[in-house]
Amino acid sequence: MTTTSAPARRERPRIGSHAFLMLLLAAFLAPVAWALLSAFKPANDIIRSPLTFDPTTFNLDNYTAMLQDVPIGQGFLNTAVVLLLKGAVTMFFAPLAAFAFAKYRFRGQNLAFGAVLITLMLPTIVLIIPLLLEMKTLGWVNTYQALVLPGAVDAFAIFWMRQVISAVPDELLDAARVDGCGEFGIFWRVVVPVIRPGLAGLAVLTIMNIYNDFVWPVVAASSERMATLQVVLSTLAQNITGNRIGADYATVTGELLAASSVALIPLLVLFILLQRHFINGILAGSVKG
Amino acid sequence: MTALPAARAAAAPPEPRRKRRHGGTRLRRRLAPYVFVAPFLAVFLAFSVYPLFFTARLSFTNWRGTGAAEWVGWDNYTYLLSNPAFWSSLGNSAVLWLLIVPVQMVVGVLIAVLLNNAKLKLRGLYRVAFIVPFVTPLVAVAQIWVVLFDGRYGAVNALLGVFGVPEVGWLTTSAWAKPTLALLFLWKTTGFIVIILLSGLQSIDGAIYEAAELDGASKRRQLWSITVPLLRRTIMFAVVLQTLAVFQMFAEPFVVTQGGPYGSTTTAGYYLYNHITRADLGTGAANSFLLVVLVMALSLGFVRLLRAKD
Amino acid sequence: MQRHHLRRRALLASAGLAAAAPALAACGPDITSGDDSDESRLLKAPGGDNPEGEITIWDRSGDLFEVFEGVIAEFNAAYPGIKVNHVAVDIDAKLQNTLITGADVPDGVFLDDAKVGGFTDYLWDLSDVLAPYAADIAPQKLDVNTVDGGVYGVPFDLDPGLLFYNATALEAAGIDVAAIETYDDLLQAARDYQAAVPGSAPIHLEQSAFLGQLQLEMYANQLGTSIADADGNLRLDTPEFERILTFLDTVRQEGLGTRAEYLTPTDIAELDNGNQVFYPWAIWFSFAPQQVLTETSGDWRATQLPAWDAGGARSGAMGGSSFVLPRDGANADLAWLFYEFLMFDEAGYTAVWGPGDVYPEGLATSIPSYTPAADPAKPLYGEITALGGQDLWTVATEAGAEIPGGTPTPTWWTGAVDYLGNDVQRMLDGDLTPQEVLAKSSEDIQTNLVDRQ
User: Fold this and answer.
1) What CATH superfamily is the domain C161-318+405-452?
2) Residue B228 lies in a domain
3) How far is B25 from chain C (nearest CA, A)?
4) How far is A52 from chain C (nearest CA, A)?
5) Could you give the ipTM of this predicted complex?
6) For residue A13, what are the CA distances in angstroms to A7, A20, A43, B117?
7) Residue of A80, A180, B20, C317 with fewest CB within 10 Å of its CB?
8) What is the dihedral of CA C362, C368, C373, C374, to 10 degrees?
9) What angle do CA B149, B154, B155 make, to 5 degrees?
């Protein structure tokens, strides 16, 4: 919070506001808390009595069953690889493109920015089949390339970083130029340090998006060895939503809640540690009135 | 906005210190933006444009994923446009939009305004709490929803039962499935929208409120005549963002309702997926194109709306 | 303001680009290839005495995966050279995409019979390899795997429809199940039970559109019909289907049915509390008393279904699965050996259906579709504790022998769930009459599925 001139003048909020916020707080946290706690309950109780929590019955059965049935370790590994590769590509090339859009005037700029907007507007599901066939042509099915490259330079990241970089004073760039800095040097040594809060926010958002992405990975990673964490979760969930002939609803629900908790916790911890950067980062990219 | 005059001034290059390198620097400066956007454009051409062209061609065939494709002209398009199920998928998306976007904006602005108050206790806690759902994996959320909203054993019905509300088939009746899905979407994304709105609030000059206070304007009055108008651009940005998200919605019905009951949660995106699961790829491609055109038209419409008020 | 202009022009430019796409559509992956001659589609068994190689086999996760996992050792005793890579896969989500891309295609896949028709373009025609066994396979199972004269699946289980009933509860209410011979008798028994146990809703009414349609086909199979004939022509709007729907609608109107999705929490609770005592379902319902029901396990029994007319067939098939062999699989011929062993070799089918780790009393959720294996005199499993020690094998094999053939599954069967499956549910909601369901579904299926093949 660098400039909070507006709030400073406000008076203490009234009871009503507190009650409103507290109520919302409960509504926002309850489902997640419920899932984290329920994962420790006997599988049958999760479904039959979802609101009772008897600590004496808590156990790790759902976790052991899940670890036995689900390749969650492999999922974590694949997610980590994709996160590293795709994250790095987006974190470097999106701000770079955004820099060009924010600080240069060049022929074809509108068309190029149109490409950013088009990408934002394209529903993932529209591209699934043609992309899949493209992966087939390239021989990329069940490879990390297929998981990383489509959508690697995230359009929303460019859009957002363009806002952030626009706020960097041109005088700063010109001064660097006068000092003999090359164009890339300006980006790397002037722009990047200045927009660091924004980049931190982008990093959190990017990690979150990649970590939680599942529509494309489900399609592109059909083999178990390439399954990301979300694919593993989705496969498990399919045992419930598909025909449940021979799959025990309660057991699978228990396993799914255990697996979901395991998947959620790293991200939650990361987020709580970095939330200041994330929120400040988005604030840095404010769409000003 | 303030940066723009400076940007124009910068278009005229500053006096270079070393005349010798003048030409090279200028050329490099002209070429630089192209190099900078090239990686994005390469990905865009390879993984958006190329598949789109392929989709376009596919949409005029009856290809089923294997064997030879037969050219069928506009048949897939006329089939879709004359099919009530196609229109009802658009209708479902529109209803979801109505259930989601206005609510989200009203609640979002209220929360953002409250959180913008530096004297609010637990401010940090609220900001984190509201965004927790946004961080939670959708697949996990979906299963939470299915269990919590179960018609017989669900926690939601159990809670409402305390107040004497009879059992509601949240996910099993076509009347309630859409609101239940909308609630999931609201729960999951409102925190993010609040942060965006907060960012807009931060740029409003506090002096305006002080002046209003001196004029004796009530809090509610200030909200309506100062905050909302000044926040209009941010709100419109959020509206466009969420409109795109709602009309692209696929994953939520996929994991929670599989488009049911009776197709009541078959969104535009999910309807398209139905063709794919039946290997009717030609119709799927035609549907893709219609959906892309619709989403673009909506975005253009909102941007126009945004401009008209400027 | 300049930035607004930029964004707007960019938007317009992007719209223009999209509009130009169809004109440029000439480029794209090749979608006009493939050798489709009949000869190349016929799978041949491998030669040689000790074939070697690795096969990838996909199974749905759950009990059957574990059962097949246990049989691999037996298979390797017979074929030491073949390594089986057995994976649990979300088949519904993965198979289609895998077949389209042709990458990492498995050699054999476990698939619902109702879904086989939708994939035949990608599958080996097994007419040749199955020829020696065809005469001994239940006719209904060959029918569901036959499309345009080709056979596309190795038939796995036969799933005779049975009437499962809560013997303890019915006895307490003074109902004699042995006297139920027709569906009219079943209605009367349900009325009597309801009179004895007020508030009960004795007959299961399926609420899942997919399983409801599957059950509808079971009833139709009993009458020797199905939603489409061998040429793929609809035969839905017929007296047979009207009769079945009228029965279901009567159950609804008289309040005799418990409406729930198969073995969801609500269903389980109503089974366990004695409200729901009649479950006309495929033999795989026996999974419930064996592994899901807690209060009433041991109270359940199975008998043949009622007939539609006295003396009519007492069973029809419901569901079931087969093994399909994708043409892009590297070692489909070796996978055939695997399935041949599992289904047609005594050591194989004994290992599948006999007592094992997963089902200590045997795989009592189905019977073999290979008649020599489904011999009433040579049971692969016997008394089932969860069914009060009933000899399910005899009941099931006798019922299996009653199942009429002549009921093929059209390629679009799964797609029909959106129309027929949903309309049946609307009827059970009280929003459509049986006649309306048949007229509406027929028209919708014709326009959206049959005409668009």
Assistant:
1) Periplasmic binding protein-like II (3.40.190.10)
2) yes
3) 26
4) 16
5) 0.87
6) 11, 11, 44, 8
7) B20
8) 90
9) 100
- Tell me if B43 and A153 make a contact (CB, 8 A cut-off): yes
Q: What number is the average pLDDT over the span A176-197?
A: 91
Side by side, the strands of the sheet bearing C257-260 are: C257-260, C203-206, C278-282, C161-166, C300-304
- Tokens coding B219: 């809090």
- 3-state percent breakdown (helix, strand, coil) of chain A, nearest 5: 75, 0, 25
Taking an 8 Å cut-off on Cβ atoms, the answer to whether A120 and B244 are in contact is yes
Distance from CA of C48 to the nearest CA of A (A): 31
Q: Could you tell me the residue range of the domain that residue B133 belongs to?
A: 78-308
A127 in contact with C, Cβ within 8 Å: no
Q: Which residues from C are below 8 Å from B56, CB to CB? A: 21-22, 24-25
Q: Pick the closest to residue A253 from C240, B146, C280 (CA basis).
A: B146
pTM here is: 0.87
Three-state DSSP state, C82: strand
Dig out the tokens for C315 from the structure.
């069973």
For C45-155+321-365, CATH gives 3.40.190.10
Q: Across chain A, how many H-helices and E-strands are there? A: 16, 0
C269 touches chain A (CB under 8 A): yes
Q: Do A247 and C61 touch (CB under 8 A)?
A: yes
CATH of the domain at B83: 1.10.3720.10
Non-local CB neighbours of A64 within 8 Å, separated by 6+ positions:
none
Q: Which ranges of A53-154 does DSSP label H, i.e. alpha helix?
A: 61-69, 72-103, 109-121, 124-138, 144-148
Q: Which domains does chain A have, with CATH numbers?
A: 70-284 (1.10.3720.10)
Each residue of C107-162: pLDDT tens digit? 999 999 988 988 988 999 999 999 999 999 998 899 889 888 899 999 999 999 99
Any domain includes B164:
yes
**B253-299: per-residue pLDDT in tens?**
988 888 888 889 999 999 999 898 888 899 999 999 999 999 989 88
What does the domain layout of chain C look like in residue ranges? 45-155+321-365, 161-318+405-452
Residue C37 has pLDDT above 70, yes or no: no
How far is Cα B165 from Cα B177, in angstroms, rounded to an integer? 18
Average pLDDT over residues A168-185: 90
Q: Could you give the number of structural domains in chain B?
A: 1
Instruction: For C313-354, write each residue's pLDDT tens digit.
Output: 999 999 889 999 999 999 999 999 999 999 999 999 999 999
**Is residue B61 in a domain?**
no
Q: Do B293 and C18 touch (CB under 8 A)?
A: yes
